[in-house]
Amino acid sequence: MKVIHLTDLHLTRSREQRMFDVSTYDNFDFVFEEIRRIKSLTVIELVVVSGDISNDGDVDSYRYFLNKMESLKTPYIAILGNHDIKSNFDTALTEEESEYIITSCEYNNNTWHIISVDTVVEGEDYGFISKDNFAELERKIIKNSGFNTAIFMHHHAIPVDTPIVDSCMLNNAKELLELCDKYKVRFIGSGHAHTPRTWHHNNMTTCVAPAVAFQWLLGTETVKISTGFGFNIINFSPDLSITSCIY
Ligand SMILES: [Fe+2]
Question: Does the keyword Iron feature in the UniProt annotation (predicted)?
């Protein structure tokens, strides 16, 4: 099962508004055409978008996102990040004909169970999994114990060694990693860090996907970016593999 993992689109208020001289709409459009091209070469079963879809949470940016995603005609999961505004996302969602979005944010195939977990704390850049969300996550993992489990979320759980984002990562990452270890979760995918990174620990892969908008310079404490952008293709086969597509 091949899954495309997009993260941190940061679509701005208007197409003309740039972030650090980057047009986030141009990047998303480019990535989108690449996904179309890749889809003509191989089967993509699912697209997961792990948050910061919008930079300022405008309804228009969500309308743009949902329209494009629907036109792919591939099931997709949209997780929200610290820049997103849930009520505005929901407004756009109720307006659009949304046939392909998986609103439960859960997906099963024969061997894999994909779950997402909400890490957003309203008004804060850091992430935290609430007690209720934690319990819900554990319940879902146990219920699907016959499958390989993959979890997607917005905030990164392991420092990427870039202080500007490690200062606002997932606050209760230790508890999450212990839970994943306990139930032999195979994969955790996230965004937020704008610093692509993959770790392998025992049988678990933890992966921060490259942002669609821009990357932070590795190790930076201040606002310094690289305009490179991209996404990952994760092949959830017995030998899990990750292809990073960078532009
Ligand atoms: Fe974020």
Answer: yes
Give backbone dihedrals phi and psi of 135, rounded to 5 degrees, phi first. Answer: -65, -40
Selection from 204, 180, 206, 182 nearest residue 193 by Cα: 206
Q: Label the pairing between strands 230-235 and 241-246.
A: antiparallel
Tokens of 158: 């392991």
What's this model's pTM, rounded to 2 decimal places?
0.97
Contact criterion met (CB below 8 Å) for 183 and 145:
yes
* Cα 165 to middle of ligand 1, angstroms: 9
Spacing, Cα 233 to ligand 1 middle (Å): 20
Tell me the C-alpha distance between 145 and 133, whole Å: 18
Tens-place pLDDT, residues 160-217:
999 999 999 999 999 999 999 999 999 999 999 999 999 999 889 999 999 999 999 9
- 202 CA distance to ligand 1 middle (Å): 27
For range 111-116, the mean pLDDT: 97
